[in-house]
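Hello support,

Our group uses your service weekly, and this is the first time we've seen a run hang past the timeout. The protein is Ribosome-binding ATPase YchF. I'm not sure whether the cause is the sequence or the server load. Input pasted verbatim:
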Amino acid sequence: MCSTDCQPGRVIEGGPVDWWTGPGSTGARHRSSHPRHGKLREVVNVSLTIGIVGLPNVGKSTLFNALTKNDVLAANYPFATIEPNVGVVGVPDPRLDKLAEIFGSARKLPATVDFVDIAGIVKGASEGEGLGNKFLANIRESDAICQVIRAFKDENVVHVDGKISPKSDIETINTELILADLQTIEKVLPRLVKEARIKKDKQPQVKAIEEAKAILDEGRTLFSAGIVQGGERAALLHELHLLTTKPFLYVFNVDEEELTDDSFKAEQRALVAPAEAIFLNAKLEADLAELDEDEALELLQSVGQDEPGLATLAHVGFNTLGLQTYLTAGPKESRAWTIKKGATAPEAAGVIHTDFQKGFIKAEVISYQDLVETGSVAEARAAGKARMEGKEYVMRDGDVVEFRFNV
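Update from on-call engineer: The timeout came from a worker crash unrelated to the input. Re-ran successfully.
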């Protein structure tokens, strides 16, 4: 939503902080020249990344190329990816098309997910084998882990273990992550146990670490055991930066005929539950990325699909990171802004600009569905669908918002 009357403290054209009016404004549009600014301060971005991992030659870099339409190194030999390649991928959002139509927006900006293509992992990575140390460092910096699992058959693409076995590949990767976490725990636990004898406040942390170690010793990831980032138990483990507390999702790189094989897909989903499983053909996705919309749709329909697998991956990745979007719109742009689920209105305002959060007064909110049904902001207001929300309001996915603030 946007303001076109330039009232003090309103977001102008509902987008980036190019223009706003400050306290005491005469109503003319201007750039902020507040003495505390000098120039516009940095926007508070919700910058979270998903690390794409997998054994060598599973199609990981081909998938990444399709995700970003960038031609990073993708060769048929181990360790083709030596430095992590980072790509920002738009999350498809048809709501922006409708908002742009209503507001006459010049452009549409979707929410994004950052994917990092990380060097291939091999057995022994936790001990530094192959590029193991680099792999572990790069994945430690990611907020979620996307495992690419090979299920396609191709005699021209060698498998590092000499056989195609999704179950075995999953176990190999998980084992290395589990071993890395056990090494981390074994380094710190003896010291913490000694400290806990004197400092009673350390005892809950020691108990949580011992419970985590028991789970890992059983060969299970902490994520699969329900210990995930953001949870109470994970908070006690936070300073250890354990890899297997990160959210997991799995991409099965399959042959085209398996895209419609429900029995096969159910079998693979069972291997990775409770994580999400996505099925795609990386080569097909790379081809789709080069086609226009009509050609891509025709190709998808020829293999029994409704949308690209990458669109599903972007949405699942977004949800896996615990993210949601709110929307702003105006003649300049219609835009989806990324926030963590549970964010309050001031926190959401801070994603646009820090001053919006600090000087937050209130937010005018219309649900996307109500806005579409009424056809305009004016009609939504007339129908009683617009509401003023204060600092305690918890944002909902699809809120169309205009923030009012004072700086």
